[in-house]
Amino acid sequence: MEPYKIVPSSKPHPPVVGKVTHHSIELYWDLEKKEKRQGPQEQWLRFSIEEEDPKMHNYGVIYTGYATKHVVEGLEPRTLYRFRLKVTSPSGEYEYSPVVSVATTREPISSEHFHRAVNVNDEDLLLRILEGGHVKVDVPNKFGFTALMVAAQKGYTRLVKILVSNGTDVNLKNGSGKDSLMLACYAGHLDVVKYLRRHGASWDARDLGGCTALHWAADGGHCPVIDWMIKDGCEVDVVDNGSGWTPLMRVSAVTGSQNVASLLIEAGADVNVRDKDGKTPLMIAVLNNHEQLVQLLLDKGADASVKNEFGKGVLEMARVFDRQNVLSLLEERKKKLPRKSSVH
C-alpha cells in the first residue's frame, strides 16, 4: 500500500473553534474525515495543535495524536491566542494549516467577586463589576449581608455612595433583622449614618429582637453618632420588643458608659423607666456592677427606693450579688436623704 502523500493543494483547514470560556478554548479539525482510518495506527494521519508564543513569535506543540478535538485549558481571560494545525503523513511529510486567532471571554463576574471587591474597599473593581451589569446590587453574601451592609459596617463611605447610586435598597435586613443603618450606628461611622439617612433609612426599623438603631448605637458607644442621631430626631426612649429596654437600659446592662448615658439623659431619657420585669436603669446598672454609671444615674435623679416585681430594691440587689463598691455608694446616698439630691 503506497504511503499517503499530502499534495500542496490539500493544505489543511485551520482548526475550527468550539466552546470558548474565560479560561478554555475548544478546537476541532479534520471534520471531513478525509482519511478513512483503516489499518494500523501508524498508517493514519497524525495531528498536532501548535500555539503561538506572542513574545517569541514561534509555535509550541500543545497537542499531538490521532484525535480530532482538543480543549486548551488554563488560559487568561480576555486574551488573544493563535493556533495552527499540523498534519503529518505516515511517511513523515507534513503541512501546516492557516492560523486561527481566538480570544477568551471576559471572566464572568459572580457575586463572589462583587463581595470581594466590597470587602477590600476596591472602588475601581466595584465600578467595573456594576458597569458589567451581571450582578444584582442587592445580592447577599454567604452571611446574608448585602454589599451595602458590609460597606456601612466597615465605614467605606465612597462605596456606600456608589452602591446607593446604583439602586441598592437601603432598608434591606440581614438574617438577624439588622439593616445597614443599625450596622453603621453600632460601628460608629457617622458619615455613613448621615448618608443613609439622606437616602431613606429609618430610625424606626427594628431587628428581630425589636431593637432600633439607637439601641445598637448605645451598645457601640460612639458619642458623635449618638449625639447626631438625637439631633436628627431619633426617639430617645424607644423600647425594644424583647425585655422592654430603652437605649439607656442597654447602656446600664452592656457598656456602663457614662458618656453615652449622659447624652441620652440630656436628650430626655427617663432615668426611672421600667422594663417588663419592673427593673429600672439603676437596678440594671447595680446588677452589672457599673459603679460610675450608678453614681451618674443617682446624680441625675434615679430613684433608689423603687422595688422590682419581687419587692426587691437596689440595696438588696447589691447585697445579694455582693457588689461592695456599689453598696457603699448606695449607703452613702441613703444617709444624705431625705435632702433631695440636686439635679446637675
TrEMBL record:
Organism encoding this protein: Peromyscus maniculatus bairdii (Prairie deer mouse)
Function description: Through the activation of JUN and AP-1-mediated transcription, may regulate apoptosis.
CDD domains hit by this protein: FN3
Gene name in the database record: Fank1
GO biological process, one term: positive regulation of DNA-templated transcription
Descriptive protein name: Fibronectin type 3 and ankyrin repeat domains 1 protein
InterPro entries named in the record: Ankyrin_rpt (IPR002110), Ankyrin_rpt-contain_sf (IPR036770), FN3_dom (IPR003961), FN3_sf (IPR036116), Ig-like_fold (IPR013783)
Compartments (UniProt record): Cytoplasm, Cytoskeleton, Cilium basal body; Cytoplasm, Cytosol; Nucleus
ANK repeats (start-end): 143-175, 176-208, 209-241, 243-276, 277-309
Residues in Fibronectin type-III domain copies: 11-108
Keywords, in A-Z order: ANK repeat, Cell projection, Cytoplasm, Cytoskeleton, Nucleus, Repeat, Ubl conjugation
Superkingdom per UniProt: Eukaryota
PROSITE patterns: ANK_REP_REGION, ANK_REPEAT, FN3
Subunit organization: Interacts with COPS5; regulates the phosphorylation of JUN and the transcriptional activity of AP-1. Interacts with RYBP; may prevent the ubiquitin-mediated proteasomal degradation of FANK1.
One GO location term (cellular component): chromatin
Signal peptide stretch: none
Primary location class: cytoplasm
